[in-house]
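With this grant's support, the team has encoded backbone shapes as discrete tokens. A representative record is reproduced below.
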Amino acid sequence: MQSQQLQQFLQQHGWFPGTGISKLFQPADVGTLRTMQAVASIRPRGVLSGFLAIVPGNQVFFVGPKSQRAIRMRLADSLRKEGAILSAYEDGTDIVLEDVLMWKGVGIFRSQSFDTRWKRMQEFVDAWKPDPILQGCGIRLATYKALEDVGEPEDRQVLEFVPMAAGMKRMVWIPTEEANQTTWIAKRERLVGPDIFSLWSLEGEKQPTLALVRTLQISRMLHCHPVDEFKVQSIWSKRFARWEIVGMA
């Protein structure tokens, strides 16, 4: 009965197990990030998001992509009465809360900006008294930083860009292997675009495809370079069949 009520509650507000609020980062997203406000976070690789569902008049559930379980939490009566749906994922034994999708009966993911939704997360914190023993696990908030302040993800981690605009999916960048780094000469192709680069070998041979740029940090580094020709480090991207610029040589 509880499971049925949980599914009805999620579906009532437009959410289903496996519904994602993220997508893989694509080369075209570099331009998107240049034109909009966003923050970023580092999260475990290969871990999909689920929900922390506070079902009115019922229990609190963590709903993962493949399973669900009840969680005992100390919450204010008003929040238990009106309910909420938070986007969340598991990191080891912890549950990490990353966004608010529905708050007190009102869907807000598609109608409110991320910074406004994060204010609702702070309201959730005010209505919650952490008790790891009662909960049976740690529960914590995700950490977000400005794009220029976020570091590089470590092994088994990914970088997630979060647009401020309402209803926009997060963009997950998965680091590529760096075992085959090669030095090239990057030349700015101003006739093609302001931040488009061709790659040339040190012996002067031009590559048949333009350079691939997949992170905002690299894009900004290239954009701010004072000259139109300089050495870069690149790795071969099997997925895009192009050389990806990963730093300065």
Observations:
- The longest helix spans residues 114-126.
